[in-house]
Amino acid sequence: SFVKLGQLLSTRPDLIGEELAKALCGFQDNLPPFSQKKVRKALEKELGPNYAAAFLEFNYNPVAAASIAQVHKAKIWLKEAKKEQDVAVKILRPKIVRIIRRDIATLRMLAKIVSIFSGFLAQTFRDIADLLSDVSRSELDLLREAANASRLKEDLHDVKGFYVPQIFWAFSAREILVMEWLEGIPFSNETAIKNSPFIKFSNCSLSIF
Fold first, then answer.
1. How far is the C-alpha of 175 from the C-alpha of 63, rounded, in Å?
2. In whole angstroms, what separates CA 4 from the centre of its chain?
3. How many CB atoms neighbour CB 137 within 10 A?
4. DSSP labels for 102-121?
5. CA quadruple 144, 149, 155, 157: dihedral, nearest 10
6. Shortest CA distance to 76 belongs to which of 63, 91, 65, 89?
């Protein structure tokens, strides 16, 4: 939960400063992954014992690992389009729901204890617990994330220069999300962005195409 909090803060240099935000960026996608055995177990739990038949290829070494989930690259067969499709497979960490609920309960208990000594510190613990609770509702159910992504794709369909990856519902479940694979550059990698062909500098502005 505190790693997740670090991830959230890393996106707010306006609150914590550029230096600390950069230091926390490693929490976004560069944490120790869980084992291949647990990956297989998660796939079997959500997609059934014959889950391997759903993928033409599956790389059990993750391309990114964060506090809530990790992402693997795979390939599926699209029957209607009659073509292969590279996909990103997002898998929740084992027991992450239970872990975050435990952490939130611990923070609320600490808030009650420290309220005897400091009302400000107690409120800080309560605020962190509320933030993590909000995050857990939005990020621990991948079907909800899939629904939000699909709606966003529809809403922004005609917006030039903005693209939302397609969700593949037939392969997704509450703890597994399968979406179109896209190559890209993290916003935290300023050097790569500056060297990419998709931006244009002027004396007073930066545009990303």
1. 18
2. 10
3. 10
4. HHHHHHHHHHHHHTTT-HHH
5. -160
6. 89
Instruction: Give the type of residue at 56.
Output: L
The amino acid that residue 177 corresponds to is L
β pairing state of 69-78 and 64-65: antiparallel
89-136 pLDDT, tens digit per residue, is 999 999 888 888 888 888 888 888 888 888 887 887 788 788 778 877
Q: Tell which residue, 208, 140, 153, has the closest CA to residue 180.
A: 153
Global pTM exceeds 0.85: no
CA–chain centroid gap for 97, Å, is 14
CB 132 within 8 A of CB 107: yes
- Single-letter code of the amino acid located at 106: T
Quickly tell me which residue has 């067969």 as its tokens: 77
